[in-house]
């Protein structure tokens, strides 16, 4: 929802062109909800979701840790006030020279998912802690993650054994249940696999200590979602079921769930037309897939759209962006209901866009500038 602070900002500043406005008060509330829901877990904010310096500084001041995907994101977290022991290099695909640079910065926690990556970490960041990412099915997620990251649990045993043999600290296991995960049981399935890895390595005298339960915590788009407290209870129950009284250290990596509902994109209707008399209307906005709405690919994420004509009769519309690329179409398979009276020049708000918009925005495709961002 657009907060009153966001509405007032847009009304008084009247920024030109499409822009994202993020309300830090909502980010603060979200962090507090995660702390309350999973008090025993350390929070590592996924910087990739929205790396605005104001967001990182706020979270650093509240005690957050940070999940980073590159040296640049590590530098962002450090500049925001995080110390190296509060930063994880969570990308499983890293150049060896980038690992060495992170090690120079004092980073000692790295994600891996194969022996070759372990060998790079052992050479460039000797003695560091590593955790191995295992594959999760992602069932129930609106933005499922591919097989690009992680390995099967049986292979994770080999990976962590190799880490131990190379002098690294075989610290634990990680998984990601898929972004915008609405199935509360998803973590239970992944934790069952995780416990199997713990048990097999314990028999070899390698005692893992940490479970990184990843992100996946959703933000509200068109459908209601469970509360942070509901996720916390379901995850704690699953941990207790699989690990009993000997609970491991735990990490969570919220990104979308931390900032998604804190942001609203203001955009303008550029054109309304039809391809044929009996066809759906096409509504062209001054923002599209290349301007920050990449998550509309395959229509996986359906944002809440608020118009100045809400309450008028609705009809299905195809939404598209302003670029000269035929892929810049957002809702064609399942057209989006919008007011019949919507017209050229109307400003509309796309809610729940605080995550994965500025970072997915093209630099200058077709000459359109990257999505402007304001943090208030």
UniProtKB/TrEMBL annotation:
<dbReference type="GO" id="GO:0005737">
    <property type="term" value="C:cytoplasm"/>
</dbReference>
<dbReference type="InterPro" id="IPR002433">
    <property type="entry name" value="Orn_de-COase"/>
</dbReference>
<feature type="active site" description="Proton donor">
    <location>
        <position position="324"/>
    </location>
</feature>
<dbReference type="GO" id="GO:0033387">
    <property type="term" value="P:putrescine biosynthetic process from arginine, via ornithine"/>
</dbReference>
<comment type="pathway">
    <text>Amine and polyamine biosynthesis; putrescine biosynthesis via L-ornithine pathway; putrescine from L-ornithine: step 1/1.</text>
</comment>
<dbReference type="GO" id="GO:0004586">
    <property type="term" value="F:ornithine decarboxylase activity"/>
</dbReference>
<dbReference type="InterPro" id="IPR029066">
    <property type="entry name" value="PLP-binding_barrel"/>
</dbReference>
<dbReference type="InterPro" id="IPR000183">
    <property type="entry name" value="Orn/DAP/Arg_de-COase"/>
</dbReference>
<protein>
    <recommendedName>
        <fullName>ornithine decarboxylase</fullName>
        <ecNumber>4.1.1.17</ecNumber>
    </recommendedName>
</protein>
<feature type="modified residue" description="N6-(pyridoxal phosphate)lysine">
    <location>
        <position position="48"/>
    </location>
</feature>
<dbReference type="InterPro" id="IPR022644">
    <property type="entry name" value="De-COase2_N"/>
</dbReference>
<keyword id="KW-0663">Pyridoxal phosphate</keyword>
<dbReference type="Pfam" id="PF02784">
    <property type="entry name" value="Orn_Arg_deC_N"/>
</dbReference>
<dbReference type="InterPro" id="IPR022653">
    <property type="entry name" value="De-COase2_pyr-phos_BS"/>
</dbReference>
<feature type="domain" description="Orn/DAP/Arg decarboxylase 2 N-terminal">
    <location>
        <begin position="26"/>
        <end position="259"/>
    </location>
</feature>
<dbReference type="InterPro" id="IPR009006">
    <property type="entry name" value="Ala_racemase/Decarboxylase_C"/>
</dbReference>
<comment type="similarity">
    <text>Belongs to the Orn/Lys/Arg decarboxylase class-II family.</text>
</comment>
<keyword id="KW-0456">Lyase</keyword>
